[in-house]
Amino acid sequence: MRRAVLLHALLPLALAAAPASAASLRSCDTFEAGAQFLILPADEGVRSYANGAISLLHLDTDGEPACCSSHLLVRHPDPSAPFQACTLISHEGEMGFQWLFLSEAEARYDPATGLSVGSPAFLYGETAPRPARLTITVNQAQGTVRAENALR
Fold first, then answer.
1. Domain residues of the chain, as ranges?
2. How confident is the prediction along the chain (152 residues), in pLDDT tens digits per residue?
3. Span of the secretion signal (predicted)?
4. Is the pTM of this model over 0.90?
């Protein structure tokens, strides 16, 4: 009995300490990156930063697959190209998130690493959605994007 109570008490600490994992970064030349999947209204599905140089767009493939249909499209500067680069972020491989909450995104800027934006998300779980935080970092000077998921 004591052991069960102790394990139950430590569960929130274990979840809080869950390691972050890299999200999947892909080219925007995919089915999931289609404009028809943009979440509207725009105040729910679009965020712009750095005077419009960086845009985040929440895409949802109309619930297909049912578990993991939300993706994040990032438009960002590419210093080696005369146009915006595009990176599609999914949870794992081609599987998206169960849902993203882009309207609740929080941003901060660090000159050494770039713009970091964190957004609450749900990842697929076999019995229930798993609360997580998706954090992306865009370095405009290098034209790079990093993304990671952390269970909450």
1. 21-151
2. 333 333 233 334 434 445 678 899 999 999 999 999 999 999 999 999 999 999 999 999 998 888 999 999 999 999 999 999 999 999 999 999 999 999 999 999 999 999 999 999 999 998 999 999 999 999 999 999 999 999 98
3. 1-22
4. no
